[in-house]
Amino acid sequence: MRGDRGAMLTLGLGIAAGVVVLDQLSKAVVLAVLSHAELEDSIRVAPFFNLVLTYNRGVSFGLFNAAGGHGGFQALLFSVVAAVIAVGLVWWLARTATPLLAVAIGLIVGGAVGNVVDRIRLGAVVDFLDFHIGSWHWPAFNLADSAICLGVAAMLLDGLLLQRKVT
């Protein structure tokens, strides 16, 4: 199903805005609950899942995570790179004609903006979802990271499974 480009832009930007709002609300709740000193490092939710409070000053999965400080130049650099990528994705979104690709781009843009908001406000990204098997823990992440991953998966589905007319 193909739609007009204006509708796809509206769809994608609506998804992006929703992701940013949900991401920031979830982080505000986690900060309010887990930042109290009397709480332990994490809250056990299920045998395989905890809520934790971590600050990622690096990129995905803690890569380039700086020890100490509030990020400084690194936070600014990562924010600028993410903002440039988000602008490029919005440019692509404005030219998109399929709903799945519009949703995919919206998820990625919303996730990127949600994490940039953290970097600007806090100098680091708030991560709090901790999945684990026994003592092996996946790196903590947040709703923005989840939206980015889902957006990339949808983008791959769109590119691999949907047929396009070659002109």
List the SSEs and their pairings.
Elements: H1 5-34, E1 42-46, E2 49-56, H2 73-93, H3 99-122, E3 125-133, E4 136-137, H4 143-161
Antiparallel strand pairs: 1-2, 2-3, 3-4
Helix pairs in contact: 1-3, 2-3, 3-4
Overall description:
The structure is a single chain. With 167 residues, this protein is of the alpha+beta class. It has one domain (5-161). The protein contains 4 helices and 4 strands; from the N terminus they run H-E-E-H-H-E-E-H. The protein has helices at residues 5-34, 73-93, 99-122, 143-161; strands at 42-46, 49-56, 125-133, 136-137. It has a 4-stranded antiparallel beta sheet. A hairpin with a 2-residue loop joins strand 3 and strand 4. The longest helix is centred in the N-terminal third of the chain and has 30 residues, at 5-34.
Report the biggest beta sheet as strand number plus sense, adding barrel if it closes. Answer: 4 strands, antiparallel
Distance between the termini: 18 Å
Oligomer: single chain
* Overall outline: globular
The overall pLDDT, averaged over residues, is 85
In N-to-C order, the SSE pattern is HEEHHEEH
Rg for CA atoms: 18 Å
Features:
167 residues, alpha+beta, 4-stranded antiparallel beta sheet, 4 helices, 56% helix
In short:
This protein is of the alpha+beta class and 167 residues long. It is 56% helix and 14% strand.
